[in-house]
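Write out this protein's structure.
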Amino acid sequence: MNSLSKATLGRLPAYLKYLRTVDGEHISSASIAKALGFGEVQVRKDLAAVSGKGKPKIGYETKSLLNRLECCLGLEHREQAILAGAGKLGRALLDYDGFADYGVEISAAFDCVKTMQLSEGGKPIYPIEEMQDYCFRNGIRIGILTVPGSAAQEVCDLMVKSNISAVWSFAPVSLKLPENVVLLRENLALSLAHLQNQLSRP
C-alpha cells in the first residue's frame, strides 16, 4: 500500500462510515462519490491508495474495502496515547472523541497535580511523576505535549524515558529528541497567520 497523504487520510473515516451503511457485495467509486459529494476521480485515487483499483463494471468488494479502511485507520488495534499538560488546550484534546476515528485514544493526562483528578469527560489526570510507570504498564507509544514552552524540553525528556516513540507537540519551542523518536510540531499561531494571509490576498 502506498503512503497516504494527509488529505486522503482525512477522508477515510467518511468512506468507512458510509460503507458501513451499504448493502450489497460490491460498490463502485461513482456510487461512493455521489453519496458523499466527493469528486469521482478523487475517490478512485483515494481507494486505489488503500485497496488498489476496483474491477471494471463491478467496483470494489464491499467487505474487503471495509477491512482495508479499518486497517489503514488502525481500528484493528486502537493505539493509546497520553497527554502532558492539562490546561485549557490539553483538557480539550483529552476529552475530544474524534481521535477514535483514526484508531487513537488519549487514555490519560499528566500535570502538576498532587492527586488524581478527572476531566469533564471523566478521563484521569495524574501527577506528572506517575507518567513513566503508567506508560510502561500500558505500553504507551504516543505522547501529546501541551505544556508551556519553559517546561517542554524537560517533559519531553520524561516522555522519552517513558518509552514514548512519537511526540505530538503544541509547545511553542524547538525540542531535542533522539533520532528514533518521531516528532510532529503543531504551531497554532502559524496556522492562524496562514489563514489571515489567505484572507488578505486579492
